[in-house]
Specification:
Elements: H1 3-24, H2 31-36, E1 46-53, E2 56-61, E3 64-70, H3 72-76, E4 90-94, E5 99-103, E6 109-113, E7 121-126, E8 130-136, H4 144-157, E9 160-166, H5 175-185, E10 190-192, H6 201-208, E11 212-217, H7 223-231, E12 255-258, E13 264-267, H8 281-284, H9 289-295, H10 312-318, H11 324-336
Parallel strand pairs: 3-5, 8-9, 8-11, 9-10, 11-13
Antiparallel strand pairs: 1-2, 1-4, 2-3, 4-5, 6-7, 12-13
Length: 342
């Protein structure tokens, strides 16, 4: 190999190393860095995204819905987000051309890791302050792990989490009451409701008043049915499939709905899994308040609460002071993040 070939090979290798280092560099995505950038609002009208559809983005402006498209330059920038705009976004747009020119920086986001490759962030809703985690006593059954992941997402974004248990009119076992006790102990509001009997609906209305609420949870738990009761609407509802005891995806697109009592609610499609995007292992423990508090007494610091001796968290789990379901959710997140504990 002559000098020219060696030089060319070295140059390619250096270029590949720089590219790999750039892809691994997460600093450009840190929220602390994003906040340093001063936002200058354009002179265009400001509206709010009420739905994102295949045919375009529906923007509410002066009580009217305007179907818009994203400006080409918005699509060109490098982003780790699967979707560049979502329900609840405030946007600046050109009303005559129906082009969205800019998305206003978000105060909060409910998002998850893209289901397939986990490399991108899928935005679910923006600028919300209350997340209504919907579950049902049966058909489908409650998944504590899913609840805990939603709660963790709320803590990361400083949103209030509310657990809504639907179908309370159906026969259910004692473990439901035990589960309720776990979250009430963590100061998570729990509302038991039935869309069949209207039990608890007024309590839920009071909790939602004045907030921008997003309904989320598995398919079939009755999110759209609950919203119909809240807003007295007639959104499309589909029965749970009897053969699989799983819900069908009635809601195919998120929708921002105004509340007469003040505030908004957002209906979202049902999901099977919920991964927290960009989560690092060192972030996980503080998202489990009781584990974080108990972990301060561990013999080793830091303690992962997985294998270390004299771990106070594991002892608390054995004694029933920390719920096994919560500890299992913690372990699930720890195992899911491919990073050495620091």
């Amino acid at each position: 190999m002559d000098f020219e070939e060696k030089f060319s090979q070295k140059k390619r290798q250096t270029r590949q190393e720089r590219k790999l280092k750039s892809l691994k560099d997460r600093s450009k995505y840190k929220k602390t860095d994003q906040k340093k950038i001063e936002f200058e609002a354009p002179n265009s009208p400001r509206g709010r995204v009420i739905s994102v559809r295949s045919e375009g983005v529906l923007v509410e402006y002066k009580n009217q819905g305007i179907l818009c498209e994203l400006k080409g330059s918005l699509k060109k920038g490098r982003s780790r987000q699967k979707n560049l705009v979502c329900v609840g976004d405030f946007v600046f747009f050109e009303p005559h051309k129906k082009i969205i020119e800019m998305v206003e920086p978000r105060s909060t986001t409910l998002s998850r890791a893209e289901h397939l490759r986990q490399r991108k962030e899928q935005l679910i809703a923006a600028n919300v302050d209350q997340v209504l985690i919907c579950v049902s006593v049966a058909f489908p059954n409650i998944k504590p792990n899913l609840i805990d992941r939603y709660i963790a997402a709320c803590l990361r974004q400083k949103m209030k989490a509310v657990l809504v248990i639907n179908k309370i009119d159906l026969p259910h076992e004692q473990h439901i009451d035990e589960l309720v006790a776990v979250y009430e102990q963590l100061k998570i509001p729990v509302v038991k409701i039935s869309t069949m009997t209207d039990y608890g609906i007024d309590d839920l209305k009071d909790i939602m008043k004045g907030h921008t609420n997003v309904f989320t949870g598995q398919s079939g738990v009755g999110k759209t049915s609950i919203i119909n009761k809240i807003v007295q609407g007639n959104y499309r509802v589909q029965e749970v499939m009897a053969k699989t005891e799983k819900g069908s995806h009635t809601t195919t697109a998120s929708l921002l709905i105004p509340l007469k009592s003040g505030g908004y609610c957002i209906d979202t499609p049902g999901i099977k899994s919920f991964g927290l995007f960009g989560l690092e292992k060192k972030e996980i423990e503080p998202l489990f308040i009781e584990i974080h508090k108990t972990g301060k007494k561990c013999a080793f610091s830091p303690c992962s609460h997985t294998h270390e001796p004299d771990c106070m968290v594991k002892k608390a789990v054995e004694k029933g002071k920390i719920a096994w379901t919560r500890y299992n959710s913690y372990l699930s997140l720890i195992e899911g993040v491919k990073q050495d504990y620091e």
